[in-house]
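Fold these two proteins, one after the other.
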Amino acid sequence: MPLAPGYLLRFADLRPHVRLSRQTVLTLEQAGRFPRAVRFGPRCTLWRSADVIEWLNDPEHYRAPWPMESSHGR
């Protein structure tokens, strides 16, 4: 499945594109080096596809914006 902006991705949808373990994604997210997830409760974590595409374009230099700095209307 190709990535397109405007979608929310479960980890199972995200994994084939990023090729990282869940723990690595969470560690990078906490460090601001991976897009911040949207959490809809303790068992529902989703990522915005536009943010993931931005990360894929330059994962080495990606820095997640603080929640109020987002350019995606968050």
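Now the second one:
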Amino acid sequence: MLSLMLNTSSYGQLLPFQYYTTREGLASNWTTDILQDSRGYIWIGTATGLSRFDGIEFRTFTTKDGLPNDYVNTVIESRAEVGVLWIATNDGLSKFKDGHFSNFYIETSSESEKMMLSLHEDVQGTIWIGTYFGVYRLMKNECVRFVKENQQIGYFGIEETKDGLWWAGTRQGLRFRNSAGEKFVPFLHDDTPQSPVVNLFKDSEDNIWVASEDSTIAKIHRGKLVSSLKIPFGIPTRMLEEDDEHLLVSVAERGVYRVAKSDQKVNDIALIIQANTIGIGSLLPILKDREHNLWFLNPNRGILKLTDMSIVSFPMIVVAHSINNSGMALDVNNHCWIANGTQITEVWADTQGEWHQFNHQNVTDGTDFYQAVCSDSKGQLWFKTRDYHLFCFAGQLLSEGHSQLTRLRTLVPNIDFSATTGIMCFMVDRNERCWISIVNTGVAVINLQNLRSKIILIDSTRGWYNGGPRVLYQDNKGNLWFGGNDAGLGFLPKDSVTHGKIKLYTTADGLPNNFIRSLAEDSLGNLWIGTRYGGVAKYRNGKFTMLPDENKLLGNGVWCIAVSPDSSVWFGTNDGVYWIEHPDSTTIYQKPELKGESVSALRVQENGSVWIMTTNGLKIFDPKNRNSNI
């Protein structure tokens, strides 16, 4: 046995972001704030003006159009006057109404005191302004001082809750006041962060969330500290309410995490966007628009829109071609293994939701080229190489997160089995037998419990033609199925492996096509059959039925099929991935993001996530967000 040497870890996660920069018409790549107004426009504050995006193009407003200063710190829409915007700049406040700007200034000679950092509109419609040196109110078209500070405390966020309390995030920690109070005072609590507040946020349930430079997120409800969570990964910089149960929290230099609102625990934090994998250091979630797209500020690099968080991609330069749904396998630890040419690639998500990719190289004695992989009932991994060797490995998780592979056995061509013409595909069944499709010969069956036992050969003498099948499959009852290249579908009962004839089904029996490319059985006992030119058929109780083709189903070439624990059936084709929700359904679904690439392998985890191997790499799809009925 050989214990293998492993290389260093690498990352490759990609999400379907759309990038907007000055190239697309944004005023500046240095962005400060983003808002969607009641009419659907997206407004972006930048260092050189206020940009408006209508979904197609940008229009920018600057001092030439009436802004008091081009550096926009924040923008809000009035609740009292729908369609009216309030804009805080480095030199005054601006009201944008009916295409015109009205400006309001703080009367001071100090440039730093003129800078307006934050805005809040109270229930009476009064505008409150946070600055470096205090808080102002707009009263009778004048900026009237409410709180004066003798030093640069910096009021970077102001919020008001239904209990009449006011909250402010400052450089000196969290402050509050009641409705009758004349100033903001420190909110003192043993577990309340007193370090500078980075972000202050009020959710739909009237909770105040405070992110601080000491890496703490605090939750306050009705004036009391409810919970406090120390983020071990870095400083939380921005928060956004994703839904009724979760927040999205940006952590500097790490990415975006999902945090439960009800019970914040470190173990329940999930990394959903890994910053370094998209070439950026900081990513600030700041807007969820009406179409449920997420918008992010990318400091000094413009803005990003994430249209679909359900898909993660791992591009791979070299991906070996495979048949029989053998391009990848999932192990008992939910790690994905890919036969990736000169290396074996391992992909997984850790307990924090962070994705990892690890390339195992030089795992055997020679310079092998890995073409196919499958897992057996013991959780062992089997790989086929270009020179027709079959290697069996056991994987052991290491503290670093990846696995260490140990070679257990090798099946050598022309020693353990005859393969002078080559191997088409292989499979290890639940009875510890290795089935090897041999080109121009048939199928060799090896008893892995006793390699000295006689090799069984299934060929024309058993009712199969003298050629290796493209597909090998064992159903839930233990029966064996063969998919031929223009030979139809072969059936071998589980008790007839050593003897008996193959029962052959062809177009004469109702198959749409004799070129069989994929097989899978669902929980109802239906056998799904993917063909090269005839789409998909379903076999049950001796009868074939076709999946309707009114949408030119699947491009007709179906290379792999997988069944989810929720009984949905997934099809990998030369035009992407399609699925049906239930075995008895005829409604076909597809996502545009999963279209247009040839799919060579499909696997479904117990949690329902779909793993897709294409000619361009690996994709993981979370079907909880599935949509786009074709």
